[in-house]
User: Fold these one by one.
Assistant:
Number 1:
Amino acid sequence: MGQKIIARTLSEAIEALAKYDCNIVAGGSDIMLQKRNTAGELPRFEKDVLFIANIEELHKEYVDEEGLHIGATMTLEEILRHELTPNVLKDCLKELASVNIRHFATLPGNIANASPAGDTIVVDILLDAKLKLTSIRGVRYVSAEDFVQGVRKIDLAKDELIEEIIFPKYDFDKLIWFKVGSRKAESISKLAFAAAYKLDGEKIASIRLAFGSVFMKAIRSHELEKELEGMSLKELGSRVEEFTEKYGKVISPIDDQRSTKSYRLEVTKNIVRDFLTTLAKGGN
Ligand SMILES: Cc1cc2nc3c(=O)[nH]c(=O)nc-3n(C[C@H](O)[C@H](O)[C@H](O)COP(=O)(O)OP(=O)(O)OC[C@H]3O[C@@H](n4cnc5c(N)ncnc54)[C@H](O)[C@@H]3O)c2cc1C
């Protein structure tokens, strides 16, 4: 391992990133495992290591006219307990890892890890979240959907860090989170589903469906959402099977140690079918 830098302020962190080639460590719950060494030895980092968990100015969650801001050093457990956190994100966090891991893991760590099974990424893209990326060159914003480009591939320059995640204001009647795992606690997703909709009388005013663990990254279909928007619930009732099949084509599940491709495809289709059938009856 190279040098170890413990940043106490955002400017210390971005100056270190500009100067050295660093691995950022927030909670460490992903990266420490990736860099683990043989039993009893310290993790093996090839680069310098920048610890950011002590940056107090990023330890905040607040709302302004832009929406909800969650700072990079808020832990998942703090976010879960925070009164401003949307219920759909709380539902996701309740099932993420375990209390002890949630006490140090963070939201930016989950998205920057860019695992297809990263749970909070599904909620990020459902809510059109954007990331504030900061470096000594300045600030830029990128949507959560564009930030993750593939498995372990992210749109983050070497000198940037995620300062905060911003959830714009939204207006839905209902938001849903659903995770399929081997068991309730400490279980990595075989499949994750989040959805939101707003009705205008008997019509769908707006709708979003997001999926995790069924593609190389969390995914939504803006095309299918546009097709559904404006549709009457009666028409939806007669087209549930058609849209279930269409969503089946959007996703491209993988075989891995947790599940098979065909299981993931069938379960996704069952979830979409149930969700649309309930919605066609007026939701609940
Ligand atoms: C037993 C166990 C169970 C788990 N269960 C789940 C689960 O159910 N669902 C799930 O989604 N995940 C799960 N995880 C994975 C992990 O806990 C989460 O992904 C967590 O949110 C990672 O956050 P962290 O702060 O610990 O990230 P770290 O390990 O510190 O970092 C992860 C990556 O993000 C980068 N990074 C961190 N912060 C920033 C930042 N501010 N700016 C730029 N880059 C940054 C790091 O450089 C690294 O590449 C589990 C892990 C364990 C060990």
Number 2:
Amino acid sequence: MASDELIHALADLEEERAIQIAEERLDSGEDPMAVLDDLKAGMAIVGDRYEAEDYFIPDLMYAGDIIEQISQLIQEELPEQEEDTLGTVVLGTVKDDIHDIGKDLVYFMFDLNGFKVHDLGIDVPVQDFVDAVEEHDPDIVALSGFLTAAFDSMQETVDALEEAGLIEEFDDDGLRKGTKVMIGGGQITDDVRMYVRADGYETDAPGGVKLAKQWLEGAEVA
Ligand code: B12
């Protein structure tokens, strides 16, 4: 079934149809990642319609609910995670931001790739990140945020982690040693990464996993 059909069913908020198409495509053995890409494309259209004021907040929430149900189906299709833990991640959507669809996909991709992920949820207070990093001593702190306001929350979180001595001071020339900070979400760019003093950023979940693996390989060599 053509990917356009799923994209438009999601964009038009046709819940039953979107789920049915996704099920059929997954049952036919199609790569679940292709289905995931179409969800993103459909959600982008929903976002455009929201910006054009054709859709409103309840429509966004409804679209999020459809995505969540289909993500569940995708998860069932994917192979079991590796037994050995590749690394540990503390993840959360930062203070004042409640967007969790993207963050949940990040959880899902890291988990699938054999990382142990501690998901702190949404609107996570700075101190909760500090406490979780102290408790779990992760390889990576993954901060998600979709609002412009999230940039300040991310920066405050990084400041607090540095002040607590849980991550090293940021060095413009390279990566921190030890625990690294990765950011991602809707509006993240390299300028935002510098502002936040994160070690890296990615615009999608598979990119985040790839970067994390590169960091961990680097750590083994060092
Ligand atoms: C859905 C949505 C909502 C839903 C969220 C539902 C939910 N459960 O998450 C609801 C309705 C609740 C909502 C609320 C609001 N929203 Co909203 N929302 C969106 C929307 C349409 C889609 C975001 C989304 O989930 N996309 C789907 C994901 C899967 O796509 P993706 O981004 O490609 O996902 C990847 C990356 O983000 C990445 N990623 C995410 N996190 C991380 C972390 C790491 C470490 C890495 C590596 C990668 C990574 O991986 C994901 C998977 O591959 C966007 C517009 C848009 N087009 O993006 C606006 C948008 C983000 N919202 C916006 C706004 C303004 C709001 C509200 C303030 C609206 C209001 N007036 O109340 C509130 C904010 C409430 C709050 N305090 O947070 C603005 C933000 C503008 C800004 N610059 O600040 C946007 C851009 C819309 C707009 N253009 O106006 N929103």
Number 3:
Amino acid sequence: MTRTIEELIPEYIRGLPVYVPGKPIEEVERELKIHAVKLASNENPLGPSPKGMEAARAALNDANRYPDGGTLWLREKIAALHEVSPDEIFIGLGSSEIIDLASRVLLRPGTIGLTSKGTYPPFSTAIRANGGAVEHVPMCAFAYDLPEMAHAMTSATRIIYLANPNNPTGTAFGAEEFERFLSHVASDTLVVLDEAYIHYAERTDMPQSVELFRLRRNLLILRTFSKVYGMAGMRIGYGIGAAALVAAMNKLRTPFNVSGVAQAAARGALDDHQHVKRCIEANQVERKRIVEEVAKLGLKPVKSETNFVFVEAGPEAKGISDDLLREGVIVRPLGWMGFPEAIRISVGATEENNKLFGALGRVLAKREGKPELTAR
Ligand SMILES: Cc1ncc(COP(=O)(O)O)c(C=O)c1O
């Protein structure tokens, strides 16, 4: 009997969840025929780094050529910035690519990848897609429970994924807690420390990850140009890790994974200290406004170290998000991430946030008028 292509796809791949991206703004505007604001994908509302874009525009003239597949200039620049060797820098098609490649290098059936519940879904996808089994440790007060994660490690644990600060809860762990955790990690287990939101953290005791990397090579630090540099559409990020791991990931990636335009944009953006500073400051101001306004409206925001706010909204969370959508405000209901009673609101520009406050006020007032809500 002949088998179908579908039957040839391994069960562990067929069973993978599909990553659900935030609803595109164009789709909402077309469907509802209204002007919409998107506060759903933790993007930078102030736009891309001007220096990055200037460099990208210049690089477009060479679009007939393949890019530097070895990303030498950019790796040298990033290596100098962090005082590590260029061999310890991997340039990825966003940090998303690196999340997957780390598991591709280290996992196979019979191995385990460890992460937390309530964290960035691509971590478990990477583990499962590469034949590993996922172990999820429950959170504690919307934060990673690092002592419990240390207990959950076994000799089969090859990789551990941590986002610090975490998406979607916005919480972060400090240096002391992380160093205690690391002291339990065996030298043949890789800790992937995803610092996509690190620039936005207000905590003053954040781990000095690169210094820790110098002391122990079983750490892979991930950074992205998608957040504070405002270049999510460019698809570029980097990892800092042991040269042997970087070399192995280089063998697996496609030869020209990152475009020359994106490489140039990243080089320009790294010099754009003014843009970074402006984005961090604006985020701080607007994040505070969101926290205060949603609390005034009776919802419960969780303290955020990121460019978004995780908000406890009760059993009506999904309905509230749907109503906001009809008002032209796209936020993220978090049922698919394991929090059916929460929504995630990305910090927008002042005007966008004002639109959110108005819409949220109307949505909640209307819902309060409904019999099933007043009955509670
Ligand atoms: C924790 C975390 N890591 C990685 C990414 C993906 O970043 P990139 O655009 O670099 O692939 C995101 C995106 O939202 C994220 O929240």
